[in-house]
Design brief:
heterodimer, A: about 180 residues, alpha+beta, Rieske Iron-sulfur Protein, 2 domains, 4-stranded antiparallel β-sheet, B: two-stranded antiparallel sheet, globular
Chain lengths: ~180, ~400
């Protein structure tokens, strides 16, 4: 552009005569730049007005702080002396715009006077592990991860042991601490 | 710069790069082609800078000014609708069981939810206002005349699509107003002779307004209409640029100036003012959400959105048995008239004085729509206070 202006030609468009007058060519670049900056600033402002809230909508789940809550999930007597048992329980949660009763399951086993609670999600990629009673171990059907009776990795790709939930036994009930 | 550069789309290249794409380039220039700067590299592949520059240098005839900023404002407002719509869709659920609760959650539970929904609600009203103003400007300036007939036709199609957005979007909150406006609005389809009942079932997705109506309207609102709108807007812009701005009715003396910076700056000022107003209204109050749709609540008087009030009033004053005149024939004639306007108006001149009958006819239609809308607005009862659902927790506690 600058080069063309020096040559006294209009570089702007292909339609002759549109801006080839002397005045146009001599227009101060300062004004052009100034208006350009103003237009840019207005557009950045408008973009911010819209991008802010939309990003907020996208990121709102990050701002949510889960709280912990003790909930009863089973009778202590349901847990056998030997081996693990799968317990299914339902819990009412706020799922976005509505409340739902969601089903969850965990494995419970006795350990001394207390209870161990293992999450059934494989620590590799989150498939649900199955309990094999005859070998007293957990097997992941997806990629062959194997966990021992207390959740430690025996073989396969899982990087760490099964997650243990905090549980307590009170008045014959097993209570689980759940993040909701 | 010579003619060849322009023809071959090299206008935006740096002088060095221009040299190397010429057939008579020197060995030194050709050598530079193998090591182009980033800008030239992109230009040779995308043609982006040439495109931007061509648009910034679009010639503006003398007399073009604030009236020609409305199209750009519309584009901005529509882009805003797209973005706020995307945000709302992440929290909205198109089912009669959950739609109302999800909109309530947006209003009350999502950070800035009421603001974003307010932008969408007020934005839609503003779009209709600006769209009407843009259309009236083109009508009175006679800018639809040869060779811009198809630009006008595409604009009328965009008008229809925007009304389609309004009608389908209105149902989505699934509150009383939404439900009843849709029950009545879709009922209009049934007045079409011969195929009315089938048309009604087709629009509603069944005999009644229900789950299938809601998902049908939602699919139209977020898939079909946006796709149509983007395509039509692209075509409209292409045609506007191809035939250039028509300019004032009578050519003014003065020089033709490029779009950038003066007109672009005016556009930006109008965008700022328009968006500023929408933001102001969105901040001023939470967008309304009435009680959940209830097909048995009879004391509720259904009213459409204000820009359909003209049609609503027309229907009210029609004598019994002539409903089809108000629902199909008159709106149909106006729509057809709009599409055919460039061929109905045969005069060579764009001056209003030289095309009196079309100006009179157009003004009569506009006046009629205006009066009916005004009548509807004046007869609108004060804010309806529907019996809201009792908060379940509060009622259980007492």
């Amino acid at each position: 552009m600058d080069n063309d202006q020096k040559e006294g030609k209009c570089s702007s468009c292909s339609r002759g005569g549109c801006c080839s007058s002397e005045k146009e060519v001599k227009e101060k670049p300062g004004r052009r730049t100034f208006l350009g900056i103003l237009v840019g600033a207005i557009n950045v402002g408008l973009l911010a007005v819209i991008a802010g809230p939309v990003t907020g909508f996208l990121g709102a789940p990050l701002a949510r702080r889960p709280r912990k809550e003790w909930i009863p999930i089973a009778d202590f007597s349901e847990i056998p002396q030997e081996g693990a048992v799968e317990i299914t329980y339902s819990h009412r949660i706020q799922d976005g715009y509505h409340q739902v009763d969601r089903m969850y399951s965990v494995y419970l086993r006795r350990e001394g006077e207390g209870v161990v609670c293992l999450d059934p999600a494989c620590t590799h990629l989150g498939c649900r592990v199955n309990y094999q009673a005859d070998k007293d171990r957990f097997l992941c059907p997806c990629h062959g991860g194997v966990f021992d009776k207390s959740g430690g990795v025996v073989s396969g790709p899982p990087p760490k042991q099964l997650v243990r939930h905090d549980v307590k036994v009170e008045a014959g009930k097993v209570w689980l601490q759940k993040e909701v | 710069m010579d003619e060849r550069d322009r023809n071959e789309g090299r206008a935006a290249l740096t002088p060095e790069a221009k040299g190397v794409t010429r057939s008579d380039s020197t060995p030194e220039e050709r050598d530079r082609l193998s090591r182009p700067g980033m800008k030239d590299w992109l230009e040779l592949r995308l043609g982006w800078y040439g495109f931007v520059r061509k648009n910034l240098d679009e010639p503006m005839p003398p007399g073009v000014g604030w009236w020609q900023t409305l199209g750009n404002l519309l584009m901005t407002l529509l882009a805003f609708q797209f973005l706020t719509g995307f945000a709302l869709a992440m929290y909205y659920s198109a089912s009669p069981e959950t739609a109302h609760a999800s909109v309530k959650h947006i209003n009350e539970g999502v950070p800035l939810g009421a603001f974003v929904r307010g932008l969408h609600v007020w934005g839609s009203a503003f779009i209709v206002v600006i769209l009407v103003a843009h259309t009236l400007r083109v009508f009175f300036w006679g800018s639809y005349k040869k060779p811009r007939e198809l630009t006008w036709v595409v604009g009328v199609l965009i008008f229809q699509v925007v009304l389609g957005f309004s009608f389908t979007g209105y149902l989505l909150p699934w509150d009383q107003k939404a439900y009843w406006a849709t029950v009545v609005g879709t009922r209009i389809a049934a007045t079409v002779p011969f195929v009315g009942e089938s048309l009604l079932v087709l629009i509603r997705g069944g005999q009644e307004v229900g789950a299938l109506t809601l998902s049908r309207f939602y699919a139209l609102h977020v898939m079909a209409l946006p796709a149509a709108l983007i395509g039509l807007m692209g075509l409209h812009l292409y045609l506007v640029r191809k035939h250039h701005i028509a300019g004032p009715v009578l050519p003014k003396r003065g020089k033709v100036v490029p779009f950038y910076p003066d007109q672009l700056f005016k556009d930006a000022v109008v965008q700022l003012a328009g968006v500023g107003l929408v933001v102001y209204f969105a901040l001023a109050g939470k967008p309304a959400l009435e009680a959940i749709a209830n097909p048995t609540q009879v004391e509720f008087a259904p009213r459409p959105e204000w820009y359909f009030l003209g049609l609503y009033e027309l229907l009210k004053i029609m004598p019994s048995g002539f409903e089809v005149v108000a629902t199909v024939i008159m709106p149909g004639l106006v729509t057809i008239g709009m599409f055919l306007l460039p061929w109905l108006d045969r005069s060579e001149s764009r001056h209003p004085a030289h095309r009196q009958w079309i100006i009179v006819a157009g003004s009569a239609v506009i006046l009629m729509i205006g009066l009916l809308t005004m009548k509807g607005l004046l007869e609108t009862p004060p804010e309806h206070h529907a019996v809201h659902e009792k908060p379940p927790v509060a009622s259980a506690a007492h």
